[in-house]
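Run log // design_07
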């Protein structure tokens, strides 16, 4: 089935990214896994390649292309190679939409050139210990100083992807108490400089998968945040978060589909090379049926992911559609990767095989960006249930 979502420019970019991965990532990827993160200077290489500036206006050093399709190509190519670009994904997928939507002209002039060059890596700090998906229950506070020049930030965040290397973090904090009729009221967003006094990185979290993605706990003790670093209006942060969740969930959906596609590729290669009982694993009917079933699921997930991508680029992706795409693609990836690992036999359990890392990396897709259960709730609500 011919795809129509990509054009010649995207395919040329694909060749560039594929060559870059082979030269700059594959040879050192095991070292990154052992270190638990990609090195900071790798992000400068990504910046040189232009990947941080694709959707940034030309006046700030970007390419000014209003499309997520180049990001989609990167999802497919990193999955195909069984690697990742570390915590840099959140820089573009999570950081940039808030700057595009909320930053004033003055803020864009300060933030975006460094965003594009990799000089300032961005992350998003929403989740807190004990609150999980209940964003409205956050306890981190930001109180305006008596002279009105800065906010004083106190609290803690956890599961912050890109949190170790981040130079700026978009921190969600309470500037007002929740209202009795609206507990979501009172949250504001701040572009916090990680070099600020009182800002500290706690543990670099030891995760099941995504080993090269630096994920951290953050703590704020009387951190002074200049009023010039407030993003958008005070107390409206929850609605801002909601507006950007569809693009985040599309990213998770597309990444999961790409992982499932890669898993079939890895399994197909393995079963054609591996012999048991004097013949290849691929020659057994069970193997053919398993891979055929997996391919059919991947085909369906690709169609869903592509449709969501087109809707996102058109500015028409709804919260329910994004939730549906994320639910479907992540559940497909879970099933497909598990079955493809099974076809590897005992070797599928060894980390030297990409299918093992893929299995561990994929598991979080049904949790972060909103759990599968939360996705079902969103979809059910859109159905009037």
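design_07 sequence
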């Amino acid at each position: 089935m011919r795809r129509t979502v990509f054009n010649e420019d995207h395919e040329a970019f694909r060749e560039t990214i594929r060559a870059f991965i082979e030269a700059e990532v594959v040879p050192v990827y095991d070292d990154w896994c052992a270190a638990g993160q990609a090195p900071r200077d790798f992000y400068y290489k990504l910046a040189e390649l232009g990947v941080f500036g694709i959707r940034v206006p030309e006046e700030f050093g970007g390419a000014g292309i209003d499309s997520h399709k180049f990001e989609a190509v990167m999802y497919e190519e990193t999955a195909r190679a069984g690697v990742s670009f570390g915590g840099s994904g959140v820089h573009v997928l999570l950081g940039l939409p808030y700057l595009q939507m909320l930053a004033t002209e003055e803020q864009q002039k300060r933030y975006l050139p460094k965003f594009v060059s990799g000089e300032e890596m961005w992350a998003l700090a929403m989740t807190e210990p004990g609150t999980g998906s209940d964003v409205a229950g956050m306890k981190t506070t930001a109180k305006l100083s008596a002279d009105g020049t800065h906010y004083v930030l106190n609290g803690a965040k956890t599961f912050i992807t890109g949190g170790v290397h981040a130079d700026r973090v978009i921190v969600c904090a309470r500037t007002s108490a929740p209202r009795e009729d609206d507990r979501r009221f009172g949250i504001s967003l701040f572009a916090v400089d990680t070099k600020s006094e009182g800002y500290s990185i706690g543990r670099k979290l030891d995760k099941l998968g995504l080993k090269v993605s630096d994920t951290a706990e953050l703590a704020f003790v009387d951190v002074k945040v200049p009023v010039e670093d407030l993003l958008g209006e005070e107390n409206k942060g929850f609605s801002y978060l909601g507006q950007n969740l569809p693009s985040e969930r599309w990213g998770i959906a597309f990444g999961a589909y790409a992982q499932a596609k890669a898993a079939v590729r890895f399994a197909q290669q393995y079963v054609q090379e591996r012999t048991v009982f004097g013949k290849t694993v691929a020659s057994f009917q069970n193997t053919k049926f398993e891979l055929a079933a997996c391919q059919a699921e991947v085909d369906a997930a690709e169609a869903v992911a592509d449709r969501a991508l087109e809707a996102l680029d058109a500015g028409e992706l709804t919260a329910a559609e994004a939730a549906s795409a994320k639910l479907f693609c992540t559940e497909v990836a879970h099933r497909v990767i598990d079955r493809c690992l099974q076809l590897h036999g005992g070797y599928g359990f060894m980390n030297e095989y990409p299918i093992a890392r893929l299995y561990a990396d994929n598991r979080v897709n049904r949790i972060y960006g909103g759990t599968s259960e939360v996705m079902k709730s969103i979809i059910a609500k859109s159905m009037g249930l």
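The chain has a mean pLDDT of 95.
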